[in-house]
């Protein structure tokens, strides 16, 4: 699906904010500390990282609503500083918090927004029909935004971001705060878009979302990229195939960690459990029991991006 | 009355409202004090120079300033009561949804309403009290006892506006209707209820309309008291009218808020 | 049918021209007001009510008014003041409370900046809407004045553009100030600025009521310039002072708009 056309390219991209305080000089805070990114046409590109990793700042720069502090950023080969409106007319943005117009109904939200892109009226009208159908909101066309559920609002925001037939669709945490069923509906719609060849750029702190949607991923932490690759590659490179999770009584996990240390390639101590990284989880578990240890619960599972992240940053994504 | 006065529960809400008051009193203090003061200065003092000072044309007041001063005090009581029961109530129902957290405790709707009305009355008491105190040195009050009696009357006026508006706000979905309360209610009342000019100037039909408005009832009562020229029959009518309005408003408020919160 | 479908697939999104953008923002506001038409419709009432109350009710006990050296009925004196004051009130309410809500709570402008619209488009569009609304109210008020026989000159036709100028000046400056506001508490200052201007800018009594030094201060305030301009137009007593007022109001409007644009860049494009 992907070809070699570069849609987004960043070299040494930086973003810093000066936090002004009432007294004394402002404190400079670097949200993005020099990242290199290449997004090619047709891929689904994910930025994975915990809150505060610099994902949203990067997104805002790509959307041309945040001036670049350093390095170079090109979208469609254009500079956001000089071609903001041109770039924005070719991208779709689904922001982290819904910015729907509460004073307008569902249909009007799409209509007014579509007109901001300089599209003729009849074109916008036709596209609204198409998009409402696509996000399954046709019956809600005349509903007030306030009356929609969280999942519906999200779908409306996605429909809105597609009104200009964008070449790149940017999704900042598209399913945060939604229930599992609503998330699956959105993933399904995004997957269809991907199949239609739309370039997707998404941020998330859910590893399952990244695994579902992204062809390529960068893992960000504290403003830098700590790893890059496909979900499969990242897991292969930074984790073992399987993980055995064992849980001892409250407060005992850390104390017992040294006793199982040699049974796996690597052991992570979490507050409530121990993670044994090994290619054969069942075997490791047998060894643990063989030593006379009696964990309260045990679980063997395949490694996920969560484990990659833990390995790379020493923290779990939810922190 | 449908609900017994739920005093003990309302007292448990005193701390909540005390914290709200501590946080917000500064915000209101300038406007609620400066607004009537500016009106007094502009209309009473400066425009007053151009007004014939004839008590016969001013419902018995010796000067235009003395005429509008009691009216402005009553307007102040109304304004505070209405502004405290419009957006703040909408916020408690819809935006911050504080009522829902209150109703999740053992408190009843009646107790919640009573406590909030108590808060509104404290606001009215303070700002009308300060206002009366500031006006006194201008020599616009003829009767000391009457002026003191005017203060509890302001509470009654405040209540007569607070409960009906509270009832209206409690069942409202969209705040844009508040614009109507202000534009079709508060502003015309302020302008035509014998505050800036005697309602006799309105002509017989409109004068009769003005007499039925709760603000005129309050203005007339306040004016009688501070001028020390009380017609006791009329005074009793005013008090009963305002008290009845407050009671009906109370009943409606509890009913509508219950319907909104307890589904 | 086929033609339409071709258009759907071939129409390409593009940056909109400034005039187009203003039209779109006005359209959006119009749509949003459709559900609150009564709020729109009752908007013009306030100055009319003031005119009836102060101009006529109080007017019956007021005597001895002069404007530009000639005796004038109190209602003729108050009416043009109300046009100007309501132009200010309307513009400021939109530019302060309304604009703040859209900026901080509704995140409306964040949404717009995800499209090809720019911060300057946003500033111009919001101001244009506010002026359109103010213009409609002013026109309605002039009709009321005409019906009541309060218009003494053909110049009164220009009261509507004069009211638009007042709206431009206060709208732009108000929006500029709003961009500095942190919370609703700060709106206390808006009220503190508006109310004295409304009451003391020769709206209800002439500036001769003040001592000389204070009179100079009042004559420099923007609302005073607007009130006097409107009064000169309805009475037909134009002077060079009228031109000064016009220039003054235009300068405020343009200056305000420049600040708004800069501040929006700082606030929304960070």
Structure description:
The complex is a heterotrimer of chains A (319), B (263) and C (270). With 319 residues, chain A is of the alpha/beta class. Chain A has 2 domains: 6-230, P-loop containing nucleotide triphosphate hydrolases (Rossmann fold, 3-Layer(aba) Sandwich); 240-302, Alpha-Beta Plaits (2-Layer Sandwich), CATH 3.30.70. Helix content of chain A is 35%, strand content 27%. Chain A has 11 helices and 13 strands. Chain A has helices spanning 55-62, 80-88, 106-116, 121-134, 150-161, 180-195, 207-213, 231-238, 253-260, 281-290, 305-313; strands spanning 6-19, 27-40, 44-48, 70-75, 91-94, 168-172, 199-204, 216-221, 224-229, 242-247, 266-269, 274-278, 297-302. Chain A has a 6-stranded mixed β-sheet with strand order 5-6-7-3-8-9, sandwiched between helices. A 4-stranded antiparallel β-sheet of chain A has the order 11-12-10-13, with helices on one face. In chain A, a hairpin with a 2-residue loop joins β8 and β9 (224-229). In chain A, α3 (106-116) packs across α4 and α8 (231-238) crosses α11. The longest helix of chain A is centred in the middle third of the chain and has 16 residues, at 180-195. The mean pLDDT of chain A is 88. With 263 residues, chain B is an all-alpha fold. Chain B has one domain. Chain B has 11 helices and no strands. Chain B has helices spanning 7-11, 14-46, 64-85, 87-95, 98-103, 109-135, 144-170, 178-192, 204-212, 214-227, 232-261. The longest helix of chain B has 33 residues, at 14-46. Chain C has 270 residues and is an all-alpha fold. In chain C, β1 and β2 form a beta hairpin. The interface between A and C is medium-sized, with 38 and 32 residues.
Task: Give a quick set of tags describing it.
heterotrimer, B: 263 residues, mainly alpha, 11 helices, C: 270 residues, 2 strands, 73% helix, elongated, disordered N terminus
Main beta sheet strand tally, sense and closure of chain A = 6 strands, mixed
Look at the helices and sheets of chain A and give the structural class: alpha/beta
Q: Which residue ranges of chain C are poorly predicted, with pLDDT under 50 across at least 5 consecutive positions?
A: 1-8
Largest interface summary: A-C, 38 and 32 residues
> Pairing-aware structural class of the strands and helices of chain C?
mainly alpha
- Strand percent estimate of chain A: 25-35%
CATH topology of the largest domain in chain A: Rossmann fold
Radius of gyration of chain A: 23 Å
Helix content of chain C: over 70%
Strand order of the largest sheet of chain C: 1-2
* H-E order of chain C: HHHHEEHHHHHHHH
For the secondary structure, the number of strands of chain A is 13
User: Low-confidence spans of chain A: pLDDT under 50, at least 5 residues?
Assistant: none
Name the quaternary structure. heterotrimer
CATH superfamily of the largest domain in chain A: P-loop containing nucleotide triphosphate hydrolases
Q: Averaged pLDDT of chain A, please? A: 88
Major beta sheet, strand line-up of chain A? 5-6-7-3-8-9
> How many domains of chain C?
1
Average predicted local confidence, pLDDT of chain C: 87
Radius of gyration of chain C (CA) equals 21 Å
């Amino acid at each position: 699906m992907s070809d070699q056309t570069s849609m987004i390219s960043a070299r040494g991209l930086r973003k810093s904010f000066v936090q002004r305080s009432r007294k004394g000089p402002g404190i400079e805070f670097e949200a993005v500390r020099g990242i290199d990114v290449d997004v090619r046409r047709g891929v689904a590109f994910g930025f994975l990282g915990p809150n505060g990793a610099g994902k949203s700042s990067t997104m805002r720069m790509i959307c041309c609503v945040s001036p670049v502090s350093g390095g170079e950023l090109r979208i469609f080969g254009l500079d956001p500083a000089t071609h903001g409106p041109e770039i924005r007319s070719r991208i779709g943005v689904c922001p982290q918090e819904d910015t729907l117009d509460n004073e307008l109904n569902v249909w009007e939200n799409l209509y007014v927004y579509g007109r901001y892109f300089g599209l003729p009226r009849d074109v916008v009208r036709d596209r609204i029909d198409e998009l409402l159908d696509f996000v399954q909101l046709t019956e809600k066309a005349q509903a007030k935004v306030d009356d929609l559920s969280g999942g519906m609002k999200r779908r409306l925001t996605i429909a809105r971001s597609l009104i200009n037939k964008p070449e790149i669709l940017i999704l900042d945490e598209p399913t945060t705060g939604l229930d599992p069923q609503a998330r699956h509906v959105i993933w399904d719609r995004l997957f269809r878009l991907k199949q239609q060849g739309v370039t997707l750029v998404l941020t998330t702190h859910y590893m399952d979302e990244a695994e579902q949607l992204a062809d390529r991923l960068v893992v960000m932490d504290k403003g830098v990229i700590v790893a890059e690759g496909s979900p499969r590659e990242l897991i292969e490179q930074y984790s073992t195939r399987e993980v055995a999770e064992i849980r001892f009584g409250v407060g005992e996990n850390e104390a017992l960690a040294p006793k199982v240390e040699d049974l796996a390639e690597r052991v992570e101590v979490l507050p409530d459990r121990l993670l044994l990284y090994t290619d054969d989880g069942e075997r490791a578990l047998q060894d643990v029991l063989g030593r006379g240890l009696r964990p309260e619960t045990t679980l063997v599972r395949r490694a996920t991006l969560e484990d990659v992240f833990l390995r790379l940053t020493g923290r779990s994504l939810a922190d | 009355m449908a609900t017994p006065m739920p005093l003990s529960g309302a007292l448990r809400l005193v701390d909540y409202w005390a914290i709200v008051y501590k946080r917000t009193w500064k915000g209101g203090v300038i406007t609620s004090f400066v607004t009537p003061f500016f009106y007094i200065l502009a209309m009473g003092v400066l425009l007053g120079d151009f007004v014939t000072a004839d008590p016969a044309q001013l419902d018995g007041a010796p000067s235009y300033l003395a005429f509008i001063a009691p009216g402005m005090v009553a307007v102040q009581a109304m304004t505070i009561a209405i502004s405290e029961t419009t957006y703040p109530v909408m916020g408690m129902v819809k935006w911050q949804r504080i009522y829902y957290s209150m109703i999740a405790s053992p408190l009843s709707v009646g107790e919640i309403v009573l406590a909030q009305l108590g808060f509104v009355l404290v606001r009215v008491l303070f700002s009308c009290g300060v206002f009366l105190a500031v006006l006194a040195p201008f020599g616009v009050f003829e009767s000391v006892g009457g002026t003191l009696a005017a203060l509890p009357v302001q509470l009654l006026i405040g209540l007569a506006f607070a409960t009906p508006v509270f009832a209206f706000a409690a069942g409202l979905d969209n705040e844009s209707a508040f614009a109507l309360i202000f534009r079709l209610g508060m502003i015309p009342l302020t302008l035509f209820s014998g505050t800036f000019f005697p309602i006799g100037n309105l002509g017989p039909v409109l004068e009769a309309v003005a007499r039925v408005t709760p603000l005129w009832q309050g203005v007339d009562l306040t004016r009688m008291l501070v001028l020390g020229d009380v017609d006791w029959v009329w005074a009793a009518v005013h008090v009963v009218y305002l008290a009845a309005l407050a009671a009906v408003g109370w009943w409606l408020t509890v009913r509508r808020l219950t319907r909104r919160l307890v589904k | 049918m086929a033609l339409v479908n071709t258009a759907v697939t071939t129409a390409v999104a593009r940056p909109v021209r400034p005039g187009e953008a203003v039209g779109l923002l006005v359209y959006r506001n119009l749509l949003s007001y459709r559900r609150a038409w009564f709020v729109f419709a009752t908007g013009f009432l306030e100055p009319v009510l003031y005119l009836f109350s102060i101009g006529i009710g109080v007017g019956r006990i007021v005597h001895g008014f002069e404007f530009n050296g000639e005796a004038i009925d109190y209602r003729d004196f108050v009416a043009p003041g109300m046009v100007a004051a309501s132009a200010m009130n309307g513009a400021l309410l939109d530019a302060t409370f309304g604009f703040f809500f859209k900026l901080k709570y509704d995140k409306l402008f964040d949404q717009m900046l995800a499209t090809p619209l720019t911060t300057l488009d946003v500033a111009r569009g919001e101001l244009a809407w506010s002026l359109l609304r103010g213009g409609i109210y002013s026109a309605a008020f002039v009709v009321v004045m005409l019906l009541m026989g309060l218009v003494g000159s053909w110049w009164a036709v220009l009261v509507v553009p004069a009211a638009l100028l007042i709206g431009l000046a206060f709208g732009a400056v108000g929006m500029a100030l709003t961009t500095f506001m942190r919370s609703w508490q700060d709106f206390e200052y808006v009220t503190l600025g508006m109310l004295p201007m409304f009451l003391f800018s020769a709206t209800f009594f002439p500036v001769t009521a003040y001592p000389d030094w204070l009179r100079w201060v009042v004559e420099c305030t923007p609302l005073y310039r607007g009130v006097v301009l409107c009064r000169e137009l309805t009475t037909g007593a134009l002077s060079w002072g009228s031109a000064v007022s016009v220039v003054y109001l235009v300068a405020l409007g343009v200056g305000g708009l420049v600040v708004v644009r800069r501040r929006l860049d700082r606030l929304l494009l960070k």
